[in-house]
Amino acid sequence: MSFGSKAPVVLLTNDDGPPSPSSPNIYSFAKALKSTLGWDVRVVVPDCQKSWVGSAYAISDVIEGKYFYPREPDGLEGEITTTSRPLKEGETMEWVLLSGTPATCANIALHNLYPDEIDLVISGPNHGRNSSSAFAISSGTIGATLGSSFSSYPSIALSYGVVQRPVPANAITLANEAAVTVVERLWADWGVDQSQQRSLDGSRMRGRVQLYAVNLLLVERFLERENRKVVWTRIARNGYGQLFKPKRPDSLGDTWHTGSVAAKKPSTEGAAQHAPPTSQTTGTNAPQKDSPDSTKPASAGPAVQQPVAQGGDQGMSSNDEQQEEDGRLVFHFAPDMKPLILPEEETLLEGTDSWALHHGYISVTPLQASYAEPDEESMCFGSEVGANRAPERNGEGKKGVWKL
After folding, report:
1. Do the beta carbons of residue 7 and residue 37 sit within 8 Å?
2. Residue 236 CB coordination number (10 Å)
């Protein structure tokens, strides 16, 4: 692998799954990479929504995969099969859907599906920002690139922040144009990280930035070429509070399902499947039985869209009261994202990714695949800071050794 010397073979994955209302970016972005840059793109994604899983691996699961052949114009329909086959008219790519996490998809793609073939890993574009530590640590999009970085592959996590719903179609087109430009520039002139000289001894990424997190907003005026501004950033530090709320046991049918596309009966003789119907009330894909007589291509979308908090915090709700009555513990994912997405301007530190997005800039954050460590003064007890009493300074033994 030589950075920028040739058109790379790209592994494209994500955490939103195949094309669907909650995964509207990956199909058009994959086409943009191919048509604009002429890059060879291999797509391996989870078969359903896998947001907020970080870099997790479900090690007790047996991972199953199927082949998906998305069709024009938006990839929402296409045939799913258990075996690979030649492309048909109207198909441009063969995708692989796996019943695993984003990090699992990246690892299987790199080491089982395309060993020694991939030059660059791109995860995304996520439908939602992954700026600030609260989102970044939880992000399956970034989690996939952390996993690929551990295998010494240069990686880019790409996220599109949603500001307006529905997202204007032209905003996604402009976002893809901007993202392709940023990705091309990074690949052609990949950054250095001298702190990696020793820690990655023998790795192809020694002395190199391991991964980048790229965030932009789906706002047309910020993405137009004459207004576009790209800045280097650091991750803004923040946190979150309550993520789950009580759920009425008699309303469990409304919870966030993670139904798998691959769990549907695949077409093994060229017969396509019905697309899962979309609920008019929830905007989600409703469960559906297999239809062997169907001729309509299958929707490759996950069972539902990303979870959305319903209503505000109302203190002791009927849900809480219902739980107290029957003693059951039932919770659903219902976070209040507003403080994370719309922080107070005075709290934004200049040069951070959240600050950049607040001003409409495209944020590019170099990252290492490791936990951040505090300064040297953390290597002693709090009472010893500034007192010249740290173990490595007072003769109690080897550097950093405690005296018990």
Report:
1. yes
2. 26
Binned at pLDDT 50, 70 and 90, residue 244 comes out as: very high
| Residues 70 and 27 sit within 8 Å (Cβ to Cβ) | yes
Cα–Cα distance for residue pair 208/195, rounded to 1 Å: 9
Between CA 66 and CA 107 the distance in angstroms is 16
Please state the pTM of the whole predicted model.
0.81
Q: Are 14 and 144 in contact (CB under 8 A)?
A: yes
DSSP per-residue string spanning 79-122: EEESS--PPPTTB---EEEESS-HHHHHHHIIIIISTTT-SEEE
Nearest to 124 by CA among 109, 143, 107, 111: 143
CB 127 within 8 A of CB 160: yes
Spell out the residues 6+ positions from residue 351 whose beta carbon is closer than 8 angstroms to its own.
233, 234
Count CB atoms within 10 A of the CB of residue 324.
11
Sorted by sequence, the CB contacts under 8 Å of residue 325 that are 6+ apart come out as none
Q: How far is Cα 110 from Cα 66, in angstroms, rounded to an integer?
A: 17
For residue 300, what pLDDT is reported?
A: 41
Q: How many CB atoms lie within 10 A of CB 400?
A: 10
Q: The tokens of 254 are what?
A: 């409304």
Q: What is the pLDDT of residues 340-387, one digit of tens each?
A: 888 888 888 999 999 999 999 999 999 999 988 888 878 777 877 776
**Can you tell me whether residue 356 is helix, strand or coil?**
helix
| Residue 71 near residue 31, CB atoms below 8 Å | no
